[in-house]
Amino acid sequence: METVNIAALGDSLTRGVVLNNENRYSILKGSFIDIIGEKLNLCIKNYAKFGCTVGFGHNVLDRHPADISASDVTFLEFGGNDCDFDWKMIADDPTSEHTPKTILDSFKEQFLSLIERVRSLGSKPIILSLPPIDSNAYFSFISRFMNDEQRKNIVRWLGGDIDIITRWHETYNKALFEISESTATPIIDITTPFENYQGDMMSLLCTDGIHPNAQGHELIANSIVGLGEGFY
Fold first, then answer.
1. Quick count: other Cβ atoms within 10 Å of Cβ 102?
2. Whose CB among 36, 94, 146, 231 lies 3.0–4.6 Å from 150's, allowing a Cys bridge?
3. Average pLDDT, consecutive stretches of 10 residues, N- to C-terminus, the chain (232 residues)
């Protein structure tokens, strides 16, 4: 079987970052990228990086156009950081205006441009959707070093509903499916396998509530492997 060359652009999900038992982030050996590369005979150049937004994807294209051109497929996985806020600033000053790292309209525009640029370089863009997050676990994680007043300030800013974090995250994920449809760009749905999981979804996530753990990466990999050559 001929090897398929893939460039992967994304954030910590695609990088394979997990929260270890010492509450530190590390790279998982056996991430979904590792698994699908082995099982589907894919040669994957992984440019994903912890904490990156969609703007990073454009930086990769600026720096590595030849590598993108040489790739049959380019994975695009962004949104999880784009929709995030500076929670420390909110905790300290909840009455001021706060915006996400990438406002939604800008996220859509930059993602559309990213798709066009990948195509212009001769590679086939494929979007990866986002895995769900757990608002309560995430809130506990981001506020773990905050005092009671700071935690209350965040909850107050959220309108008293911590689950807004999940719903806000979902708006960016929804945008990915809309972009996929409007641009006829394939999307690999890794959201639904988590939602359909028969068990506690937190068993698929690290304690921070946002990063898939080893079991979560295996679920993602199996979902992609199940598509076979169909995804590219």
1. 22
2. 146
3. 90 96 91 96 97 97 98 98 98 98 98 98 98 98 97 98 98 98 97 95 97 98 90 78
